[in-house]
C-alpha cells in the first residue's frame, strides 16, 4: 500500500509548478473580458441575455393547453346550434393564410360566404388570448359528422368558456341581423331548414270581406299588445287561428298577409313528415319567437279526426302521432317553451276535426274562407287591372251572387290579358259557363 501512495504522489503536480499556469490563465481571461466589452455593446449584451433567459424559461415551463370540442354527437339531442354559429362566425375570420377555402352563395344571404375545409385551422385573438379553431369531419353510421376543436392555454379556460363563446354568439347574432329578412322554415328531420320568405300578400290585396279583414287585423294588434296580460293570467303568449273553407279561397294568402303584417317568420309543418310524438315535440320545441306555425290541411291526418265519428282501427293505422301529443304542443306544458307564437291550422273540412282541437285556447279564432263576393272581386280587379269601375261590373256582380266561385279561379281569368275589356270578358264567359254547368247538374239530379 505504501508503494501505491508513493506512486500516486509522483503524478500530482507541485504548487510551485501550478502558479505560473494559473497566472497565464488569469491574464488570458482578463484580455478576453476586455475584448468582449470593447466588441459587444451593453445594450446588445442585455438583449442576448434576455433571449437566453426567455429560451431557457420556456424550456422549463412549456404552457399546457385545453381543448373544447363543438360537435353534433350528443345522444338524445338535436343539432348543436354552436356548429352553425361557429361556421357563420368564422366566415369573416378566414384570411390569406388559409390556402384552401369553401365559398358559397345561399338564399337569404346577401354576400358570398366562406368556410373552412377539412383539416384547416384559424387563429382568433380575443383580449390577448390566442384561440385556435380546427375544423374536421368524422364518419358516423348515419353519415359524416362535422366538428370544431378550440385550443387555448388552460389558464384561460374560464374566460374562454364564459366570455369568448358569448362573444362568438353575440357576433353571430349581430352579423345575422344585418342580412336577416323574413324566413320560411320547413321541417326535415332532425331540424328546420329555411329559405327567404318573399310572399308579397298583404291585407290590402286580399280578396275578402272588408269587415272580416279588419276583425283579423284588430285581433292581431290586440295579441301583440297583451304580453303583460298573458303573463298576469298565467297563460302562454300565443294565439291560435283556424282557417277553413274550400280550396282556392285564399287560406295561404291570408297566412302570408299575417306574416308580413306581424313581421313574423313562418314555420310550415307537414304532419305527414312527423314520425312520432317525440318528433312532433322536437319540431315544435325548436320554433323561435315571433313566429307563425302553419299546419296546412290538418284534416288529411286521420289522427286528428273526430274520435266520436271515426273508426279507431282505421285512424290508428294511419296516424304517426297521438292527438294528445299535438294538443300538448299547442296548449299544454310544451306550449310554454316559447312566446309570441301564432299557430294556424288550415282545413277544407272543419267538420271532421276532433272538437278537442278546436276549442278556445287552442284555436281561438275560427275564420271561414268563403267563395268570392262582389266586394272581393273589386279588390281582385284593382290588384290585377288597376281599375275601380267598368261597364261589365254589374253583369259580373249578378253572376257572382248566384255562383260559388273561388277568388283563385277568378284571378286566373283576370291574368289572361292586361286589357281590362278582354280580361273582364273572360271573367263573364267563365261565370256563364259555370252557371250552365250548375243548371245541367241540377237537371241531372232531378
From TrEMBL:
Keywords: ATP-binding, Hydrolase, Magnesium, Nucleotide-binding. It comes from the Eukaryota. CDD domains: RecA-like_BCS1. SMART domains: AAA (SM00382). GO terms for biological process: response to stress. The keyword Nucleotide-binding applies. It catalyses: ATP + H2O = ADP + phosphate + H(+). Its cofactor is Mg(2+). Residues 237-373 form the AAA+ ATPase domain. One of its GO terms (molecular function) is ATP hydrolysis activity. The keyword ATP-binding applies. Pfam families: AAA (PF00004), AAA_assoc (PF14363), AAA_lid_At3g28540 (PF25568). Belongs to the AAA ATPase family. BCS1 subfamily. This is AAA+ ATPase domain-containing protein. It comes from Manihot esculenta (Cassava). The lineage of its organism: Eukaryota, Viridiplantae, Streptophyta, Embryophyta, Tracheophyta.
